[in-house]
Structures are given as structure tokens and as C-alpha cells.
Write a structure and sequence with these properties.
The protein has 293 residues and is an alpha+beta fold. The protein contains six helices and 17 strands. Helices cover 22% and strands 38% of the residues.
Length: 293
Amino acid sequence: MSRIDFFIVDVFTIGKKYTGNQLAVYLGDPPTSLMQQLAKEINFSEITFVTSNEPVNNGYNARIFMPEVEVPFAGHPVLGTAFVIQRELIGHTVDQVNLNLEVGQIPVTFGEDGVLWMRQNQPSFGHRFEAAELARILNVDVDDIDQRYPVEEVSTGMAFVLVPMVSLDAVKRARVNLDRLRALLGAHDAIAPAIFCTETIHAENDLHVRVLDDIYGAPEDPATGSANGCIAAYIVKHGYLGADRIALRAEQGYQIGRPSLLHLEAHIVAGEYVIRVGGQCEMVAQGQLAADE
């Protein structure tokens, strides 16, 4: 029997354990079939595997799995995995850890205030949907969607349908019709709707976000770095807040009892987007998995 060390980390916390988004990080390279089984077994929105104990091309190889499928990129797994690598594999303070993912190498920097930051890839803006289509899927009135701005598919490595809402009440009331969602997204790359508004639970925050991603076997996500990166790009592109440079605080996870905080920064330089998403991490538990050789 071989043993694989694993760690459970909360990512995008509000400064304490048992908030933010749970992540299991495994240090090892078992067969892909076992990786997928473990993702279903632990049933977090994602788990990761660090498959190289030493840097490869100045980064650590990593893979990300949802309960039903491997994915090329996801936000909170990037930060949580870098946190574990710095703590367990490097063993001392560093300014940056690079992760080698399917979408390319993603750098994670460590702030003195305890916030980890990822630089996300250039966004792509895809299909635009009718507000009425999403209203039917979300079980809200079409007037609950802020139709001054588009309902649009956006990706920085993982695609979401971004839906601006008119109020916090509208965001809270949304309930996904999964059959309608699957029918709509079957022809597109997006994995879930990400709905948001500028009315917040806590006055110090700027956005309230929900990501309703039941499609790949995960329930509503407590904190979604990839979706929030897409939202940051969308805000800059469409002048959603009337500014071409943003530094925002996004709250998420409150409807499912996992309050989370994400820091978003975005602007455009020489035609290219600079998108950074940050958050705090907390170590929760660690152990060893006994795996058949």
C-alpha cells in the first residue's frame, strides 16, 4: 500500500476556519480513475492533485477535479493548492508559487496581509443570451435581471453565464431549473450561471455573488475565483460600475452557510486585461490516504 498525504483547506475565508470554499489537496499522482473517485468521495466542489514534488518549468504540476469531471482551471483550487505547496513542499516563505495547469501556468503571489493573489488568463467573451431565457432557468421575473447590461458567456479558463441582477432580493430568490439549464448550456462552454448585484449583505463589500453550478455534480459554490475573475473582466468591459479600473470586495456563499470574501482587481493596459483575484486561506485538517498500488 502506498500513502498519499492530503490537506483540507478553506479558501476565500472571512478570516477564520469553516468559511469560504472547502478544498482537498492531495500530494501524489495516482491513476486518473482514482483521482475522479476521490473527487466523488469527498464531494467538495473541487479537489486537486499536486503531481510533482519539485518544480517543473518553474512551476508545480497540478490537476483539478469536480465530483463528475476533471476541469482545466478553477479559482479557489489554485489559491488553496499554492497555499499547501508553500507550506508543505517549499517549507518557507516565498513571494510566488506557479501552478502548471491545463490552461497554462498560473502564478500565485503571497501578500504580507495574508491574502493570496492569482493572475487570471485573458478573458474571452462569448454568446449573449436573452434575459428571458435566464429568467426561466433561474425562476425569477425578467425584470429581476438588470437589462441595461448583457447576459453573457465569459471565460478566463472556465466559462460562466454572467447574469447581472437588480437587487439582493432577486439574487436570493433565484432557484435553478436544472433541466432547462442543461438544455441551454448543452450548446455552449459555460458550466453554470454566475449571478450578481451591487446590493450586499455587508456594507463594506461591493458585490453579492452566487454561482449555481449543479451541472457537474457540485451544489451551489461557496466561493468561485474563476467566476469572479470573469465578473471583474465583465465589469471593466461594460462599465458596469462606471470605472475602467476596479478594486472590489465580493461576498459569496451566504445562502448555503459558507460566508466567503473575494478581492477583485481589473483594468486594461494596451488592450490586454489585467485580472487578479485574491483571498485568504485557512488550514483545517490533514491526513494520509492509503491507496492500492
